[in-house]
Here is the input.
Amino acid sequence: MVGQNLELRYPNLAPGTHFHFGRRSWTIVGVFTDNDSARESEIWTDIDDLKVDAQNHTADTNSLHVLLKPGSEAAFKNALENQLSLDVESEAEYYSKQTSLASELRSLGLVIAITLAVGATFGGMNTMYTAVGRRQMEIGVLRCLGFKRRDVMISFVLESAMIGVGGGVLAPILAVIVAAATGLNSRLMRVGLLFFPID
Here is the structure.
């Protein structure tokens, strides 16, 4: 069975269709819903069939989902943790732990992006000051010809903008050429449905 979100996104996962995974072809027998939760992005199958297909005959299980009555979570957790070496946590706690690392990475990425932006700003200012300093004679000639300071400044800004736009257009073209020459393509960088074999 497949979740409703998967079935809506991938028409080839509709009931009655087949898809190849592992060493065999699997048949979609139905679609399940769960109030638009994350489980609707899952594929459910019999664990014994999956172990046979993966040639995994051990009794290891990654996780178990248990539906409990409201208010019985604490008693269930205490009973299991006292008898078995299991970590019992709610679905909200599980996904909170999964997303905590992503939040830390996002914060780190934001700090790095701000640092790079500030550095790029100072680098651009330094480049502009250097360019203006090297062209003092040209600026003097323009001023002698009657051009105002504002006009000279605008000409430098427009020149810098044209160079920046040219670089912004040329860079992706060169990136595509280099990617094609080295064998890289967009298929290696796409985001989509992934299947991982179980060893």
User: Anything to note?
Assistant: The longest strand covers residues 18-21. The two ends are 22 Å apart (CA to CA).
